[in-house]
Amino acid sequence: MSTKRAAVRLCLAQQPEADALLSKDPLALLMGMLLDQQVPMEKAFVGPYVLTQRMGKVTAQAVVELGEDRLIELFVEKPALHRFPAAMARRVLALCQQLVDEYGGDAAAVWKGADSGQELLGRLKKLPGFGDAKARIFLALLGKQLGVQPAGWREAAGQVGQEGTAMSVADIVDADTLGQVREHKKQMKAAAKAAQ
């Protein structure tokens, strides 16, 4: 089993400073994934960097201590961190509270020491805002780009864990692969619409 964070440069925000933060800070990466809904992917993954600019060093404990009202103010401040800033601030707070309560505030502890892909998937699905699909995509991202590869991780991630795909954020390593993933999602939406 490999759980070593590879020395990679993530390209999810498509902005150098934000991607550098995502590449080195597990909490920023979890937050970006949490925010990745109903907004463009790049906006979601820039969010943790913007929060850092507004708040200073962001840790799970610091977010919890900040409290809901102040966190919402930081999310709502223009430009808002999300299309639904108050709701997503509450989700980030819930995520950070769970990280403090169950993992000593260490976001990477969610995946450190997981003995199998299924165990890791189960841990991810217990996080606020991480449903089945989001948990599988994040598991695939950990395995494909960060070297977190407990036994059976590809199987646990399902279709998005397969090698050579261009289906999700797990597969985005540059602007070209971002375009491929967007094209895949466009085709999936068209197929779903045609099936109605």
What does this entry look like structurally?
The chain has 196 residues and is mostly helical. 60% of the residues lie in helices and 0% in strands. The protein is built from 10 helices and no strands. Helix 1 packs across helix 2 (26-35) and helix 2 (26-35) packs across helix 3. The chain is globular, with a radius of gyration of 16 Å. The chain starts with 15 loop residues before the first helix and ends with a helix. Mean pLDDT is 93; it is low at 1-6.
Question: Concise description?
Answer:
This protein is mostly helical and 196 residues long.
Write the layout of secondary structure elements.
Layout: H1 16-24, H2 26-35, H3 41-55, H4 60-66, H5 68-76, H6 85-103, H7 117-125, H8 132-145, H9 153-157, H10 175-195
Helix pairs in contact: 1-2, 1-3, 2-3, 4-6, 5-6, 7-8
* SSE class: mainly alpha
Helix content: 55-70%
Number of helices: 10
Can you tell me the overall shape?
globular
Poorly predicted tracts of residues: 1-6
User: SSE order, as H and E?
Assistant: HHHHHHHHHH
Distance between the termini: 43 Å
Q: What is the number of beta strands? A: 0
Residue fraction in strands: under 5%
Average pLDDT number: 93
Query: What composes the largest sheet?
Result: none
**Rounded to an integer, what's the Rg over CA atoms?**
16 Å
Features of the shown structure:
disordered N terminus, mainly alpha, 0% strand, 196 residues
